[in-house]
Amino acid sequence: MPIKLVPRTAWGARRPATGLTVIRSTRGVKIHYTGSRVDPRLSTEHRRCVTLVKTIQRGHMDGNGWSDIGYSMIACPHGHVFVGRGPHRLPAANGPGLNHDHYAVLGLVGNAGLTEPTDAMLHGLRDAIEYLRKHGDAGKEIKGHRDGYATDCPGKRLYDWVGAGAPRPGSVQPAATPEPAPTAPAWPGRLLRYPPPTRGDDVRRWQKRMHDRGWPVTVDGVYGPASRATCRAFQTEHDLPVDGVVGHITWRATWEK
């Protein structure tokens, strides 16, 4: 069946407070739940799903001070898929240093009240994943929020579903083969910095890895002001010392999952 997509205009989304960061691609998606009580009436009254999505956006913008709702997509108990930040926009819900690598997809269940995802919601989550793969260049990884971040999210039921390969209800999912982490090449032994511009194959190798991870960088073998700006943004996102210089620590982090 086609995706039951709910565009931002249809659910009454507020405009982002500031411009959202554009990303080229991700390694995949991370699945979330609300982490709070969800009214069980959502399962029978779809209008409450719309209200909850708007409430979440308001909490993220007015409470957290974020530019917009933190999730990329949201699936409700009726199988509708709400567009949050959407594809090719950096989410905010995965945690510091973890947003560039995965889109954030929320299932409207919580830790009390409505805790069990319906079959329609699981279909909606799969629809969201496939939508982000098609329209946002999401990779094959499907993980839970707790993978890499200290949280109970997305709760036992959804995390078990993720661990089973996130199958559609009624389908048989083959065991997933974990994707090996890329091996970082040896640090070249010199700092990549500007000014003056550093040039060479090691610069090109670093730029290529950053480009493959979705960062806006030109792969030309010249470490100029644009590469420095990308480096500083990467260091900020990954809680590294922000100096715009690719030393041993930043070089290694570039290849880490």
Note the topology.
Layout: E1 4-6, H1 8-11, E2 26-32, E3 37-38, H2 46-63, E4 73-75, E5 80-83, E6 102-107, E7 112-113, H3 119-136, E8 138-144, H4 155-163, E9 198-199, H5 201-212, E10 222-223, H6 225-237, H7 248-255
Parallel strand pairs: 1-5, 2-6, 2-8, 3-7, 4-6
Antiparallel strand pairs: 4-5, 9-10
Q: What topology, given as strand order, has the largest sheet?
A: 1-5-4-6-2-8
Roughly what percent helix? 25-40%
Judged by helices, strands and strand pairing, the structural class is alpha/beta
| Gross geometry | elongated
**Number of DSSP-assigned strands:** 10
Describe the structure in your own words:
The protein is of the alpha/beta class and 257 residues long. The strands form 3 sheets. It has a 6-stranded mixed beta sheet with strand order 1-5-4-6-2-8. It has a two-stranded parallel sheet with strand order 3-7. Strands 9-10 form a two-stranded antiparallel sheet. The longest helix is centred in the N-terminal third of the chain and has 18 residues, at 46-63. Strand 4 and strand 5 (80-83) form a beta hairpin. The chain contains 7 helices and 10 strands. The protein has 2 domains: 4-163, 3-Layer(aba) Sandwich (Lysozyme-like), CATH 3.40.80.10; 198-255, Muramoyl-pentapeptide Carboxypeptidase, domain 1.
Key terms for this structure?
7 helices, Muramoyl-pentapeptide Carboxypeptidase, domain 1, 257 residues, 15% strand, alpha/beta, 2 domains
